[in-house]
Amino acid sequence: MNMCKDKSTSCKVLAIVSGKGGSGKTMLTSTIASILDESGKSVLLIDADFGTAGLTYYLGLNEVSNISVGLTNIFSNKKSTSLDSEDIIENLNSYKNTSFIGVGDHRRYKESGGQNFFHEYFDDFLTIIKEKNIFDYIVIDCRGGIDEESITVCRSADDIIIVAETDTTSFQATQYLVDVLYDNGISDKITGFFINKVFDDPSVIMRNGAVSFKCRYLSSIPFDLDAIKSFIVGEIPSISGTFSSQIWNGLCKINSLNDIKKPIMKPLKSNQFSIVSFKDVKINIGSYLLSIVLFLSIFMILISLFMSNDDLYSNLWPFFLVSLILSIFTSSDKVKKKIGSYYIKLLSIFKS
């Protein structure tokens, strides 16, 4: 098994934040958990977005059976002393080693003044979970923008990962987020930033972001229609898709994530984003493979014509047939996607 670095044993807490809502942070958070899970790590996903509970509703579509319980069941009861998490942890259907704690009932949290209790005891809550020695990683989805709960989560985290978009509004909101983290004395925990929903060459935003956000650039993630379709219906993006692969390559730059497998696919080059933004990478791979075989088939036909002999037609008909079939296949995205999927699976087996 290929690893990024040597294994580390302590449980690490990752806080995923963004300057504003709608950045794709929730889908990215669930994919980070999926990548860690794929690497054989035990993960606890926590939704700490008390404003929209986006991760809770997303996973509630297919992954968990009960989203009525969660953090609010603990942090709305000021008399609670045990902070027991066992009753609110849910298993996730599509993951091997990942569990989930949702938000729970928003109204209970607000009406009971749970904010104060959350700020006072959240770090103790995480400490208790860590001491149970069940999880390798705790990944927390914070609210889009920055609020008091998110600051509390960031104080308790080992690493803060930022999700930004390429537009001016998101860039300015992310700068404000970083300023708030600096003002609260937790900027040293900022590990790096992802650029999400990239349509074109991200080189400029990569450079400007590294200066303005004062942290490392991790990776750019193309606008991936297949990943978005998965999100809409409550499915986890494919681990072998472009969306996940770009996140995976970014995670391998983080020093504390030193025991995850290497990604199957190499990171995209800056000039490739406009090509893959609206198309599944599997379709692109399938197209390339079919094109190569078609080229070889036509090349063999030309060679045979050049080296003409008495039995020309009996030698050429297999190449004509292959060329005809390949020409038909190249017009079908479904066939190209299937071929691309097989190629990625074979590549994964080979690398393992």
From TrEMBL:
A Pfam family it matches: AAA_31
Keyword Membrane among record annotations: yes
Gene Ontology CC, one term: cytosol
Magnesium recorded as keyword: no
Record-annotated AAA domain positions: 12-178
Transmembrane segments: 288-306, 312-329
GO BP annotations, alphabetical order: negative regulation of cell division
A molecular function GO annotation: ATP hydrolysis activity
Record's keyword terms, sorted: ATP-binding, Membrane, Nucleotide-binding, Transmembrane, Transmembrane helix
Top-rank taxon, per record: Bacteria
InterPro entries hit by this protein: AAA_dom, P-loop_NTPase, ParA/MinD_ATPase
Record-given protein name: AAA domain-containing protein
